[in-house]
Every structure is written in structure tokens, then in C-alpha cells.
Amino acid sequence: MDRVILLLSVVCLGVSSQPITDGRLFSIAVGRVQHLHLLAQRLFSDFESSLQTEEQRQLNKIFLQDFCNSDYIISPIDKHETQRSSVLKLLSISYRLVESWEFPSRSLSGGSAPRIQISPKLSELKTGILLLIKANQDGAELFPDSSALQLAPYGNYYQSLGADESLRRTYELLACFKKDMHKVETYLTVAKCRLSPEANCTL
Fold this sequence. Notes:
Layout: H1 2-15, H2 24-49, H3 53-65, H4 79-84, H5 87-99, H6 118-136, H7 163-194
């Protein structure tokens, strides 16, 4: 059913320049990212449960001093800036965040979580967000600086590492994935809410 709606949206985009305001495509996108965020939480939780208490403490301490690759993507610094951002800006940031995980997501692992589902779900979500961006554009160029946003796939994560370094890299990857899916969920939820003038979009 979702695929039919996406195809219909493409047809509508081809014959009308008016923004899609019924919220149906937004609802699909929000539902997809909520599912991905839950998967990210499950992956991270499964990995943490496999660690010793001291390992968890040390890894958490290291991660707080580190940063995610996607932090290079400029995004709102707090909830107030998020609420002030335009729908198109929130959609564009969400697109870039999702796109930055298409390759790294192939290496996500953790317990019994179905990592095989993540990459295709990210691709589907990216397609839906792109449709929303095109529907809400007002003649602006799409990602004029996109060439500068080709992020490296998490540095040397794919190199042969020692046991401790590999553990840290896995923790970092899973923590960043969870963090970014939470961001995308927030941005899409606020953008969807903004389509309704009467709605209270307070975070």
C-alpha cells in the first residue's frame, strides 16, 4: 500500500507544483523513521548488554568526548531552533542524515536485531523524504552544496583493528546511528506538525 501511495505522489508531483499538504506521505515517512529508531535502540541495547559494566562505563566516557561523522551536517542546535526551522530545511537535513547512513548501515551489528532490514528501510525512507522535498520546494536548488557533504564511512572503522579499538568503533557506530535516527524522527515529526496551522508543535 505504501508503495502505491509513493507512486501516486510521483504522478501528482509531475502535474502540480502545489505542496502536498494532506500529511499522508509525511505520516508514512514518520512511521518509517520511528521503526528505524526502534531498531537502532535495539541494536545499541543488545550490544551494551553483551559488555561488562566497566566496559560500558569506559566506552560511554570515550563516546561523550568523541563525535559522529554526521555532526558535519549542519542541523539545529536545540529544540527552539528546530521549531523555528522551515519545513524544507528540516526535510533537507533529514535527507542528508539518512543518506549518510546508507553505506555504514551495512556493517551494523548487535545481538539478534535484524540488521538486514536497515539498509533497504533507509533507502525507502530517503526516497519518501526526497518526494516531500520536491513537493515543498519553491524554486530553490536542491542541495546546492551536496558535493561538499560526501562523508567518509566512519574513518578507519573498516580497517583491521585490535579487540579494544574494534569494540570502541562498534559502540560509536551504534550510538551514532541511534542518535541520528532520533534526530530524523524529531525533524520529520515537527515538519509534519507544521503543515497544520492549528497544531501545537512544541517539543
